[in-house]
Structure formats: C-alpha cells, structure tokens
Amino acid sequence: MQLLKIQTDLIKPHQDIIKKILIKLRESKITIENNDILAVTSKVVSLSQGRLVNLKRIRPSKPALKLAKRYNLDPKYVELILGEADEFYGGTDQALCTVKDGVMIANAGVDRKNVPSGYAVLFPGDPNRVAEAIRRRIHRLTGKFIGVVIVDSRVTPLRLGTVGVALGFAGFNPVRDCRGLKDLYGKPLQITRHCQVDDLAGAAHLIMGEVTERTIAVLIRGAPIRIMHRLRNAVLKNTVKVPTDRCLFINALSYKREQSMVKKK
C-alpha cells in the first residue's frame, strides 16, 4: 500500500481545496487511478466551508465560566465547545470529553491549532455529503472511481496521544462484518467487525501529522478496499456508528456498581 502526501501552502477560508489538490498532484506527476482513496484533513474541509470563528465575538455563559475554571480553559473557547457538543461527559486538564456527530472526541472537535491566533475552527458541516461531493467531482474531472475519507484526530481511552478517525467517507463500505467467518481454529466469530475506514484514517494521519506538515491530503493506493464503480447508491452515513446505549465505553462509565464489585484491593 502506498501513501502519497499532498502538501500545499496555507489554506484560507472558502478556498477550493479540490482544485489545489489536483494542481499539486499534476505538479508531482501523480495521476489519480481507479480504486485510489483520497484522504483529506477535516480542518481544510472546515476552512473551505468558512467554519472559522473569532473567539472575541463569543460571550461565555455561567456554565462555561464554571467549566473553564475547573478544566483550565478559556471561557470563550468552552462556550463555543458547549454550543457545538451533542453530549458532554466531563473532562480533564484543558480538554472536555464530548460527543459530536456520533464521534466521541475532545472539545466537540473545536480546534485552535493551525489557525490564526484568537480563532477556532469547527467540525466540517455534513462530512459524508462533502466526501460524496468530492468523489463525484473527481470522477467528473478524471473519469476515475475513487474512495474518499475525511480525516480528523482524537485520543482514545487510556492511551497517550492522537490517532486518526474518519468523520466522513464515500465510495466504499467502511466496516467489514466478520461475524460468522471462522478464525484460524475454525471457530465462528461472534461480534467482530473491522472498521476499515478508521484504519485508513490512521494511516493518512501518520503522514498528515499535527504540527507544520501542511499535508492537507494523502492519496492512498493499493489498500485492500473494494471501491464502488458507480455513483449511485451512496453508502449510508451511519453504517460506522454505534448508538450511545450500545457503546462499550459510554456504558462502562455509567456502571459504577459493577466497578465496585470487581475493584482490586
């Protein structure tokens, strides 16, 4: 599998990121092929949508002021997070644990990194629709059928540092259902599903980085993913999400009784 990075200059609000990506590919003498997967950072998608917020215009509420003091955060930033979050589960120093668009992520995806001082950028609006639009535009311009992934980063339970996560996707099934398939010893799997789209996001995130890389997209070639060679029948956007009441981690947070029963001395 090949990971081909696409670097550009700084992206400004409302810029045409697909045009910039295609120009950079031509400059690098890279031709998009059938079955390639284009991974694009969520931040540049948000910037292309103009989802940049001036924090000076935010007036923090009393809950925001209280949480800002407790978790060592800017009250205006907290107010913006609370307005964006679908659910709030507490926090730690400089980070709130939230759910946004079905993804558990710090600070509802509101980010102040790699944007002008005093500003914050929000989650992209409808990332699955954006991914599908990118896929269709690439097909219109090149005639090729590709997959698209919109990539962000998040932390995971009891692990230090960020990993990639897919906010949106198009052109392929994001999850391989392994239930009923047999393991090496002939035993049928009971619950296993393989979230291939997050594996792709993680691979792309490794190249995109978190600091000054300016890698706004990664072209993934040779991935073991079956790309749809049609533009109709888009993948259902919720095929990768788990409802809150079936999430292992959120349910575990709610069951203190079970925790006390197995607590080690």
List keywords for this structure.
single chain; 265 residues; alpha+beta; 60s Ribosomal Protein L30, Chain: A; CofE-like fold; 2 domains; 5-stranded mixed β-sheet; 3-stranded antiparallel β-sheet; 12 strands
Protein architecture, described:
The protein is built from eight helices and twelve strands. With 265 residues, the protein is α+β, with helices and mostly antiparallel strands. It has two domains: 2-46 and 124-262, CofE-like (60s Ribosomal Protein L30, Chain: A); 52-123, CofE-like fold, CATH 3.90.1660.10. The strands form four sheets. It has a five-stranded mixed sheet. It has a three-stranded antiparallel sheet with strand order 4-5-6, with helices on one face. Strands 3-7 form a two-stranded antiparallel sheet.
Sequence-ordered SSE layout with sheet pairings:
Elements: E1 2-7, H1 17-27, E2 37-41, H2 42-48, E3 52-54, H3 62-71, H4 75-84, E4 87-92, E5 95-100, E6 103-106, E7 119-121, H5 127-142, E8 147-155, E9 162-170, E10 175-177, E11 193-195, H6 196-208, E12 215-221, H7 248-254, H8 256-262
Parallel strand pairs: 2-8
Antiparallel strand pairs: 1-12, 2-12, 3-7, 4-5, 5-6, 8-9, 10-11
Helix pairs in contact: 3-4
